[in-house]
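seq:
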Amino acid sequence: MTMRFVLYQSVSQGKMVEFYCTTKTEAMQRIQDCVSRGGCRFYVAGTVTLARFQAVRAKFADSYETGLTRHQIRRRKEGGCAVTYVVWWWNKIEVRFWLLITPGRGAIWRLETPLALSDRGSRLKINGDYELLLLSRSSASGGDESWTWRLDTASFEQWRHRLERSVNVYPKNPSRLSQSLYSLYRMPGFRGIRQQVGLLVGDARRQWKSRYSNADFPDTPGLGYVSRIKAEIQDAATFLQQCINSHARQAIAEALRMNHES
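struct:
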């Protein structure tokens, strides 16, 4: 793969505007791709049940032309028309979706109320804790701005307090700090998140040194970069079937758990 990444393309139909995700990290990467490489600057977010998924998808295709090929996308952008990408994510409860929109004319401005990705008060969030925003790179990396994910302010502060408490109770409960660090380093390794993890662990290390002097700080596993995630699902039917299968497995597991407890 070349260094200039492109948006994933459906092998079967050549469509580039719909993406089907079954993990949070994949959904975050697809959203970031649509914004940083697809030129999207506005979005609409929502949820839909499995029963309504196909009907809502058909509405988007009919109203916002979410079935374009690469050639059609280029022609629309050159003609001053908006292009709408769709990211679908099954979060094991419902299907979440994001309509990601490029500047230009289109029915979506009349039928929806898109929010600006760059506005501080309307940043796109996922799971209520990660937000997408423009951050400056280091001078060694060129110093320019690029889109990335990070913890929002409230979530960052919650993590700071969690680590502070974990360090304070370490003599009585050493596993608490280990568990906190393990959870922290399982976060998706996007650039903005990696920077925040470094800040949080740095604060925890300083607090540790002030309380426990020369004692060694617990080992940290390190937070890697997010690698390119291959688009495993190429069509809506396969995505829906996987969602249904996942839902059925959860229902069976819950029934077994309740039976065991009774």
